[in-house]
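hi! just following up on the protien thing from before. the input was this:
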Amino acid sequence: MLNICALNGRLTADPELRHTNNDIAVTSFTLAVDRSYQRQGEDRQADFISIVCWRGTAEFAAKYFHKGQLVAVEGSIQTRKYTDRDGNKRKAFEIVASNVHFAEPKSKNESNSSQHNPDAQTGNDEDFVEIGSDDDLPF
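and the predicted 3d structure came back as:
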């Protein structure tokens, strides 16, 4: 089975860090993701997708992400059923993030990390060199 999701969108609010009863960090936020098509004469539509991050990824997102920021998320789709306070049965659809990334140039006040995967080491931006436009590239 394959359950992989990649999204790029803007945060609708600042992520808030919470902890479970077992002291596991969890952060939830919503991404506004533009649809890939736009009907002529209409504004582009967006989908508002719920994201959940756990443990180190949750702490990273809560610390470095803020409302309006462009963010890329890798994860998997998860659904769950629950009963609301009024006794109505509901179904929730959300993305459980495995990695979260900055998706726009960072400001001087932001972290040097461009992504967060708690199992991987982060690189140093000084290791990368921008290649200028060259029409002689072989590809």
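Helices lie at 55-64.
The chain has a mean pLDDT of 84.
cheers
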